[in-house]
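Dear H.,

Thanks for agreeing to be a second pair of eyes. The structure we're designing against is below in token form, covering all 267 positions.
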């Protein structure tokens, strides 16, 4: 039986027995139909991954108690430090972008309101961040990653760029890209020949209504290169996935022949 993976925010290796939350317990027992004696995997979002055995399932509230068996050293994080800045779009499209870019190894995802974005209050955006983190954690469990990406909302494009400057270790040397549907002279294929070794990339994805001229100028002034993604106009969520996927293929681990690597260590 394939071991299913579940997110557990607080895992203390010093404690052999851990009681899972009601939500996680529900997924373990009701969704994945696991029983006492079955083994599962737990991740904490900070790089920790453990094999655990189900010890008991409470009859009163359904809470699952597990015993940590061994720690797994997973080699599955891309060496490419990839940050995606994204203008706000329709909620279902942003949900999809979060899920799929998490699978593609994005390290940080920053949402901001652009001129042509759908309006969203700060209060509503805060609630969205909680939802995006939940979606991202589900994607972590599915794709085998052990480190959850940073996800946040800021109030402007300038703040998004400012966050990226602080997050990336070497902003000046990082490759900075903005997807622009009217760009016909430069593509990622062109840049691949010029930039053979890249360790950090910051991509910027515009709103469904397109970039304003002042916004594009601000990005260019900040060192971003305007690139096209082909002869067809892509949907917001498609463009984000293509951009992240191609960056991982060209400079990350998406083109690697190696699968996810694991090393076990007894607790």
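And this is the sequence the design step returned. I haven't edited it by hand at all.
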């Amino acid at each position: 039986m394939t071991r299913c993976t579940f997110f557990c925010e607080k895992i203390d290796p010093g404690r052999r027995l851990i009681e899972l939350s009601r939500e996680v317990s529900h997924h373990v027992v009701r969704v994945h139909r696991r029983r006492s004696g079955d083994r599962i995997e737990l991740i904490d979002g900070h790089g920790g991954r453990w094999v655990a055995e189900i010890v008991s399932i409470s009859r009163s509230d359904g809470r699952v108690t597990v015993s940590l068996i061994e720690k797994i050293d997973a080699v599955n994080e891309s060496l490419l430090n990839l940050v995606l800045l994204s203008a706000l779009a329709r909620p279902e499209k942003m949900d999809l972008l979060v899920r799929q870019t998490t699978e593609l190894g994005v390290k940080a995802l920053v949402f901001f309101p652009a001129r042509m974005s759908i309006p969203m209050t700060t209060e509503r955006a805060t609630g969205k961040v909680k939802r995006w983190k939940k979606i991202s954690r589900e994607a972590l469990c599915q794709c085998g990653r052990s480190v959850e990406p940073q996800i946040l909302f800021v109030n402007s494009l300038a703040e998004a760029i400012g966050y990226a400057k602080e997050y990336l270790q070497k902003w000046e040397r990082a490759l900075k890209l903005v997807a622009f549907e009217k760009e016909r002279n430069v593509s990622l294929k062109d840049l691949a020949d010029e930039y053979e070794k890249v360790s950090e990339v910051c991509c910027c994805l515009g709103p469904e209504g397109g970039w304003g001229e002042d916004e594009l100028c601000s990005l260019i002034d900040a060192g971003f290169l305007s690139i096209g993604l082909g002869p067809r106009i892509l949907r917001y969520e498609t463009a984000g996935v293509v951009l992240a996927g191609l960056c991982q293929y060209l400079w990350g681990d998406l083109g690697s022949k190696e699968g996810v690597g694991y090393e076990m260590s007894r607790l």
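Two observations from my side: The first helix runs from residue 22 to 31. The chain has two domains: 5-75, 81-251.

Warmly,
E.
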